[in-house]
Amino acid sequence: MRGAGNTAIAAVTAVSLCCGAWLLHSGAETHAPPQPSAAQARSDGPRRTGRPVPALPPSAPDRVRIPSIHVDAPLTGLALTASGSLDVPPAEKKNLAGWYEAGATPGETGTAIVAGHVDNADGPAVFYDLGALRKGSTVEVDRRDGRVAVFTVDAVEVYRARDFPDAKVYGAADRPELRVITCGGGFTKSTGYQGNVVVFAHLTGSR
User: Fold this and answer.
1) Contacts of 152 (CB under 8 A, 6+ apart)
2) Beta strands in 49-96 (DSSP E)
3) Predicted confidence (pLDDT) per residue in 120-167, tens digit
4) Which helix (H) or strand (E) holds 168?
5) Exposure of 71 by Cβ count < 10 A (0-12 exposed, 13-18 middle, 19+ buried)?
6) Radius of gyration over every alpha carbon of the chain, rounded to an integer in angstroms
7) Other C-beta atoms within 10 Å of 199: how many?
8) Distance between CA atoms of 179 and 10, rounded to whole angstroms?
9) Within 13 Å, how many C-alpha atoms sit on residue 126's CB side?
10) How far, in Å, CA of 134 to CA of 132, rounded?
11) Kind and range of the H or E element at 51?
12) Where is this region: Disordered (predicted)?
């Protein structure tokens, strides 16, 4: 059962997404996924421009689309592992993303979480190009109630695993917000990916 939509997720990380098996075989120097530039970071909190968009009622999501980086993927439900980290979609299904079922559903008030692999043993996966996303880009989420929640990207940031800001990424929000998470922050053969790329977005429409 889904928990309260605006409840913060305590001490959750997404590092279990970060194996990098493909880079071990193909070479990190030539095949590393794009990373966000400093220009895409948010330094002073979210800007609130324009008229507020009404939140949508709770409804589980079925699909996520990010047109500017050619993402169009089904969503599966995710829970927490026994260690308290966010679970991940099956690695062999490279075009599958997941959403955190105990948090907010995309479009309702609160922080909704979507996560997916950057690659698998066979090559790039669903969020390989997430680090190339830019502020102002659109993320669309198809919901089971037939509505599409439309989000606008506020920032794209990268964090080393040891510096991952749990409260900033997973904390409660007073409007409908979305986080999209994958691996990033550099790669080594001994540790795999060293951190996470995080997209911050807020609801700007629905249809």
Assistant:
1) 136, 137, 138, 139, 201, 202, 204
2) 61-66, 71-78
3) 888 889 999 999 999 999 999 999 999 999 999 999 999 988 888 888
4) helix 166-170
5) buried
6) 16
7) 26
8) 15
9) 28
10) 6
11) none
12) 29-64
**Residue keyed to tokens 């260690």:** 83
Nearest in space to 170 (alpha carbons), one of 14, 40, 58: 14
Tell me: the pLDDT tens digits for 175-203? 999 999 998 877 777 677 888 899 999 99
Which residue is it, tokens 């994958």? 182
Which structural domains are found in the chain, ordered by start?
Answer: 15-40+58-206 (2.40.260.10)
Distance CA 207, CA 194 (A): 38
Q: Which two tokens stand for residue 11?
A: 């001490």
Q: Record the pTM.
A: 0.86
Task: Tell me how long the chain is.
Answer: 207
Q: Which of 39-43, 83-87, 196-200 has the highest mean pLDDT?
A: 196-200
Distance CA 120, CA 194 (A): 16
Assess contact for 69 and 132: CB atoms under 8 A.
Answer: yes
DSSP secondary structure code for residue 41 in this structure: -
